[in-house]
Amino acid sequence: MGKSTQPLLKRCKALGINPVVMGYGKESKRNQKETRKKMSEYGLQLNEKQKVKFIYGLLEKQFSRYYEQAARKQGVTGELLLQILESRLDNVVFRLCFAKTRAEARQLVSHGHITVNGKKVDIASYQVKVGDVIAVKEKSKNTAGVKLILAKNGNRAVPGWLEIDRDNYSGKVVALATKADIDFAVKENLIVEYYSK
Length: 197
Fold this sequence. Notes:
Largest sheet: 5 strands, antiparallel
Radius of gyration: 17 Å
């Protein structure tokens, strides 16, 4: 997997993302005004795609594959794309507060600490479905590193499409995510326009 060496906060600023979305820092009450020069239509579309790609920690090839998958389904392509991205196992682990960031969640998954319906799944891109139960493996709950991660991440709000059992470090997918569940500003129509060219 390609690795970006650019500092995270610098990348957030360049893409106009609040670092809180990435799991860093605290929500600021102060409004941050964007002082950007005027961008072309293509520039806005590209920026929106890069922003979403960066938030979910994906490479270009993965992201375009998800777009093609969303375009083949019936419904609004942009919203289906966001739904597919939210249904990734690493994102669900992040949303359930088992990790501080999506990168940390991806590491928990790839190291085999997460189960789906009682079976170990170590593929971060695994697509969860309604009714799936995601949990931290019993053996992993006693590991010092995992214990520390779980202890410091339990106070974030969990979206309505997930149910959480904080005592047992498990959660259930009760519905698929909708655009209203996304906690950052996204203009998915610009991404659709970008790929429609």
